[in-house]
Specification:
heterodimer; A: alpha+beta; B: 4-stranded antiparallel sheet; 5 helices; 13% strand; globular
Chain lengths: 149, 138
Amino acid sequence: MDLRDLYQEVILDHNKRPRNFRVPDPVNRKAEGYNPLCGDKITVFLYVEGDTIKDLAFQGTGCAISKASASMMTDELKGKTVREADAFFEKFHTMLTAPATSEVEMDALGKLAVLSGVREYPMRVKCASLAWHTMKAAMKAEHEVVSTE
Amino acid sequence: MPHKFEAGTPNIAGSVGLGAAIDYLKGIDIAAMQAYEDELLAYGTKALSAVPGIRLIGTASKKASILSFVMEDVHPHDIGTILDQEGVAIRTGHHCTQPLMERLCVPATARASLALYNTKEEIDALVGALARVREIFA
């Protein structure tokens, strides 16, 4: 497999200029995510009003895959309802954990489909999913630490 | 005693491997090996120092022949994945030394370990693969 399939332009762009890389104000949900195996640390901030994600942002350090995944997640989920975000999480997670050879529904994933190359690199799947698990934890509780281990 | 307090499966393969490594090293001229590794380290230090955007971490005069480094704007895990695809195996991450990484203000490092079985050509291959990393992350 070509490295360019993993490091696509969209991913490199989000790595270089992460969107919503900030602490939003106001915030009413927050969680920390940690991948002890590689040291990636991320904090996801949410502002949920009623049933809608009004704002979504992140801070932290990580590789290009984890940063790009977090950045694209904030773009994708902002403005969605909590239920829609949950449904998107499920689709994204199914895609990431499906065998590299299997056919998965890419159309529904929009831009996030560029991360499907990660499946060829099992070591890096957790890089792509860290922000998403952290977002899920933030939805559930006001302060929570999640770990990929 | 004290074996009854050893829970779980001991690292049997590791012990056998260590024994085999000691046997192997006994048949080698240690002084010559050290001189060779010093030479590799000097060559590697010079080669990596010449790569733009690379910063070596740890440059003590009598250190073992390992090269820890970081690259501007590229996380060590991305370096590792690309190098792997180019046929160069290194270790990346915090190397179980999180407090030191914090002290050095780096999230992780990339690390090439040189030993008696490595060659200068392999160091050249490492430098070549790092150019590929720069190309992808340009």
